[in-house]
Design a protein that fits this description.
This protein is mainly alpha-helical. The chain contains 8 helices and 3 strands, in the order αααβααββααα. It has a 3-stranded antiparallel beta sheet. A hairpin with a 7-residue loop joins strand 2 and strand 3. The longest helix has 28 residues. The radius of gyration is 20 Å and the shape is elongated.
C-alpha cells in the first residue's frame, strides 16, 4: 500500500514544477490535499445520510444545530440564525418549512413570553438521530482503515494541529472568548447526542 499513489501524490507531482520561484513543500501540500479529501468525504456522508432519511441538507443542518446546543433541541431563532450564518429572514423561511414538515415547533420562550423559542419535535429528533447513525457508519468505515493504535496516534497528531488553530483564533482581533455552537461543530457540522446509539460507539468524533 505504501507504493500506491493517491490523488495527493498525483497533485504534488503535477504542480511541483509550477512553483520553482516559491518554497513548495511536497509533504505540506500532500497533507493539505488529503485533509481536503477527507473533509469532502465527511461532507458527502452527511448529505447522503440526510437524503436517505428524507431530510433536505438545510433541514439536517438546522436540526443538528438545535441538537448540539448546551440545551439540546432548544434555541432562539436569532441564535440559530447566527450559528447557521444565515439572515433572520432566511431563518424565518427555513423554520416555516420545517415546522410545516413537523421537524420543529415555535413556542413562546419560558423566560420571556414576548420572545419565540425554537424546539425540535419528537419526529425531528428521531429523524436527526437516524441520519446521525448513517453518517456515523460511513465515518466509522473510513477510519477503521487504521488500527485502533494508529487511530489513537492520528487523533493526537490532529489535536496538535487543531490546538494551534484555536490558539490563533483566540489571538485574532475581535475574538470574544468561548466559541459558539457553529465553531464547536464540524459542519456547522458534528457531535453525537449523549443518548444516540452513535454516542456509545468507541469510534466517533468528539
Amino acid at each position: 500500500m505504501a507504493d500506491t499513489e493517491d490523488r495527493a501524490d498525483r497533485h504534488v507531482a503535477r504542480w511541483r514544477d509550477h512553483w520553482l520561484d516559491i518554497d513548495f513543500d511536497d509533504e505540506i501540500e500532500a497533507i493539505t490535499v488529503r485533509i481536503g479529501s477527507i473533509s469532502k468525504f465527511f461532507d458527502d456522508a452527511r448529505a447522503a445520510a440526510a437524503s436517505e432519511v428524507g431530510l433536505a441538507d438545510f433541514e439536517y443542518k438546522t436540526l443538528h444545530m438545535l441538537m448540539i446546543r448546551d440545551t439540546p433541541g432548544h434555541a432562539s431563532p436569532t441564535a440559530l440564525a447566527k450559528d447557521l450564518d444565515i439572515s433572520p429572514a432566511g431563518m424565518t423561511g427555513r423554520l416555516d418549512s420545517m415546522e410545516k414538515a413537523g421537524w420543529v415547533r415555535r413556542t413562546a420562550s419560558v423566560e420571556d413570553r414576548r420572545k419565540i423559542s425554537v424546539e425540535a419535535t419528537k419526529a425531528g429528533i428521531e429523524i436527526w438521530r437516524r441520519a446521525m447513525d448513517l453518517r456515523g457508519e460511513a465515518e466509522t468505515r473510513l477510519l477503521q482503515t487504521l488500527s485502533p493504535e494508529r487511530r489513537t496516534e492520528l487523533a493526537a497528531l490532529l489535536k496538535e494541529v487543531t490546538l494551534r488553530i484555536e490558539a490563533e483564533q483566540a489571538a485574532a482581533p475581535g475574538h470574544h472568548g468561548r466559541p459558539g455552537a457553529a465553531e464547536e461543530s464540524y459542519d456547522g457540522l458534528s457531535g453525537p447526542s449523549a443518548t444516540s446509539p452513535r454516542a456509545r460507539r468507541s469510534l466517533r468524533r468528539p
